[in-house]
């Protein structure tokens, strides 16, 4: 499972408030809060539909002045979302911290070779070079995947298998939104509306 973590020292972070802010954020993004344990500093979220599955676990390991903030995720389509979320988490931590002096931050990420990650004002290019690299790789991967899905959708459409074509166009919409390419998402939504009228 891919992930990202950063160590924070001396920031005196209000982790409970960070978790509450994240709860609201994920709800707005269409995720279900699977579990939230403020005492342990752990939150699990997921979204699941017939075209997309995405799961994330956010953990704060340590105490408010010396901890590791860790994000682990699994995603079929919304891979860029999780890289951008790692960026968002850092912003939430800074916003909800009250350091006595300049804190220390160290970060690292990982990605199994079979799954590459990589795009969020919280969609901005991550400051962390490792996250920026992962995002670029994920964007390239998802762009290729979308091309394949569209070719398959057109084939299904020509064969009269509209239900299968609709599913693939829905997947292309999710990828387009994840890449921040809303014009493409709107184009595929129009295509779905057109097919549903047939």
How would you describe this structure to a colleague?
- This protein has 198 residues and is α+β, with helices and mostly antiparallel strands.
- The chain folds into two domains: 3-140, TATA-Binding Protein, CATH 3.30.310; 142-196, Serine Threonine Protein Phosphatase 5, Tetratricopeptide repeat (Alpha Horseshoe).
- Helices cover 47% and strands 24% of the residues.
- It contains five helices and six strands.
- The protein has helices at residues 15-28, 79-95, 129-158, 162-178, 182-196, and strands at residues 3-9, 32-37, 42-48, 53-63, 66-75, 104-110.
- It has a six-stranded antiparallel beta sheet, covered by helices on one side.
- Strand 2 (32-37) and strand 3 (42-48) form a beta hairpin.
- The longest helix has 30 residues, at 129-158.
Topology:
Blueprint: E1 3-9, H1 15-28, E2 32-37, E3 42-48, E4 53-63, E5 66-75, H2 79-95, E6 104-110, H3 129-158, H4 162-178, H5 182-196
Antiparallel strand pairs: 1-5, 1-6, 2-3, 3-4, 4-5
Helix pairs in contact: 2-3, 3-4, 4-5
Please provide the count of β strands: 6
The major beta sheet can be summarized as:
6 strands, antiparallel
What's the overall geometry? elongated
In the CATH hierarchy, the third-tier topology of the largest domain is known as TATA-Binding Protein
> Count of helices?
5
Order of helices and strands: EHEEEEHEHHH
Q: Stretches where pLDDT falls below 50 for ≥5 residues?
A: 107-122
Count the domains. 2
> What is the CATH C level class of the largest domain, in words?
Alpha Beta
Share of residues in strands: 15-25%
End-to-end Cα distance, whole Å, is 41 Å
**Average residue pLDDT:** 86
CATH architecture of the largest domain: 2-Layer Sandwich
Radius of gyration, CA atoms, in whole angstroms: 19 Å
Widest sheet: strand order? 2-3-4-5-1-6
**What share of residues is helical?**
40-55%
The chain-level structural class is alpha+beta
């Amino acid at each position: 499972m891919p992930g990202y973590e950063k160590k924070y020292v001396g920031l005196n972070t209000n982790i409970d408030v960070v978790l509450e802010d994240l709860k609201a954020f994920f709800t707005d993004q269409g995720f279900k809060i699977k579990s939230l344990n403020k005492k342990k500093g752990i939150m699990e979220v997921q979204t699941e539909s017939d075209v997309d599955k995405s799961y994330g676990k956010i953990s704060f390991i340590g105490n408010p002045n010396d901890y590791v903030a860790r994000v682990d995720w699994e995603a079929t389509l919304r891979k860029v979302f999780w890289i951008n979320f790692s960026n968002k988490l850092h912003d939430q931590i800074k916003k909800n911290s009250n350091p006595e002096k300049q804190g220390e931050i160290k970060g690292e990420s990982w990605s199994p070779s079979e799954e590459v990650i990589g795009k969020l004002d919280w969609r901005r290019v991550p400051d962390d070079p490792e996250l920026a690299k992962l995002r670029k790789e994920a964007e390239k991967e998802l762009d290729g995947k979308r091309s394949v899905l569209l070719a398959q959708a057109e084939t299904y459409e020509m064969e009269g298998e509209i239900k299968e074509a609709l599913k693939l166009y829905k997947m292309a919409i999710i990828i387009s939104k994840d890449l921040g390419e809303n014009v493409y998402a709107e184009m595929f939504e129009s295509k779905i509306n057109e097919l549903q009228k047939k």
